[in-house]
């Protein structure tokens, strides 16, 4: 089981996703928790590392949680993704560990050659709620 956190950042009915260097699929900005680290702290750290921005104090709110197959980790490995919303301070830009950023609709994400199952499920839910196109 891989425990992760991710930022749900929607702009113009499109979800912000990142593609790490060396990976084919896009994910939510975020990542794995360090031992003893609280989820909101891990989210702030990972967003700072990946996007070069801060999250506004007291704006981090739990939103959704997903459990599913971990992309690229082999058969039977699951990812436990806790999603949060937060106010982003600054303009996100890719760091050294991120190959590219994208704002995607569900259909645009599904058109990529590689997708992460939990992100597909998340986008389906966001589209059903009218939050993304």
What does this molecule look like?
The protein has helices spanning 39-51, 106-110, 117-128, and strands spanning 2-7, 10-11, 14-20, 30-32, 54-55, 61-69, 78-85, 88-89, 98-104. By secondary structure, the protein is an alpha+beta fold. It has a single domain (2-128), classed as Nucleoside Triphosphate Pyrophosphohydrolase (Alpha-Beta Complex), CATH 3.90.79. The strands form 3 sheets. The chain has a 4-stranded mixed sheet, sandwiched between helices. A hairpin with a 2-residue loop joins strand 2 and strand 3. The termini are far apart.
Describe this protein with a few key phrases.
4-stranded mixed beta sheet; globular; NUDIX_hydrolase_CS; Nucleoside Triphosphate Pyrophosphohydrolase; hydrolase; 35% strand; alpha+beta; hydrolase activity; 133 residues; ADP-ribose pyrophosphatase YjhB, NUDIX family
What is the strand arrangement across the widest sheet?
4-1-7-6
| Order of secondary-structure elements | EEEEHEEEEEHH
Taken from the alpha-carbon principal axes, the silhouette is: globular
Structure annotation, total helices: 3
Task: Look at the helices and sheets and give the structural class.
Answer: alpha+beta
Strand content: 25-35%
For the biggest sheet, the summary is: 4 strands, mixed
* Low-pLDDT windows of residues: none
Query: Count the strands?
Result: 9
Computed over alpha carbons, the radius of gyration is: 14 Å
CATH topology: Nucleoside Triphosphate Pyrophosphohydrolase
Under the CATH scheme, which architecture would be assigned?
Alpha-Beta Complex
Organism: Streptoalloteichus hindustanus
Keywords: Hydrolase
Family: Belongs to the Nudix hydrolase family.
Protein name: ADP-ribose pyrophosphatase YjhB, NUDIX family
């Amino acid at each position: 089981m891989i425990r992760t956190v991710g930022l749900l950042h929607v702009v113009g009915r499109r979800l912000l996703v990142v593609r790490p260097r060396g990976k084919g699929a896009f994910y939510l900005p975020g990542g794995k928790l360090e031992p003893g680290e609280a989820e909101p702290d891990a989210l702030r750290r990972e967003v700072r590392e990946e996007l070069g921005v801060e999250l506004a104090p007291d704006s981090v709110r739990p939103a959704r949680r997903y459990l599913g197959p971990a992309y690229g980790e082999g058969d039977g490995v699951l990812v436990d993704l806790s999603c949060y919303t937060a106010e982003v301070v600054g303009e996100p830009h890719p760091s050294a560990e991120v190959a590219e950023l994208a704002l995607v609709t569900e259909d645009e994400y599904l058109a990529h050659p590689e997708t992460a199952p939990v992100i597909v499920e998340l986008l389906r839910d966001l589209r059903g709620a009218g939050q993304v196109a």
